[in-house]
Amino acid sequence: xxxxxxxxxxxxxxxxxxxxxxxxxxxxxxxxxxxxxxxxxxxxxxxxxxxxxxxxxxxxxxxxxxxxxxxxxxxxxxxxxxxxxxxxxxxxxxxxxxxxxxxxxxxxxxxxxxxxxxxxxxxxxxxxxxxxxxxxxxxxxxxxxxxxxxxxxxxxxxxxxxxxxx
Length: 166
Fold this sequence. Notes:
By secondary structure, this protein is an alpha/beta fold.
């Protein structure tokens, strides 16, 4: 059975980033996106399309499976119950280079049904409380002067790397 890839977007403030992540998750072959916290949804409470998400998702928001959970811990725990390995994308002291994730965790992943990538707020990232709930934390090393990439760009790099593992 092929393992599944999931994406959890937590407190993503830019609706353009959310739309871009929908399109990227679809391109990477992910199974589902969980939108948590104040991350924008493709439709509002009246069922109207969110214009900013629609602009960058280019239709992926209409065909891609997604679920909203107010609390990110709910989404993480739901996936853990389904034996999904949860990976945070965050710069932290415990983070490993995303390129060595497979080498370090490859054998362990045999015991799981899939991988979920958690991407956090563009400025604050993911809290230490959320990182503790994840099985691993990966980061994308920066070679230039900027400390990080745009959240949607980083999400794409990590998703496409993780899909090679599943």
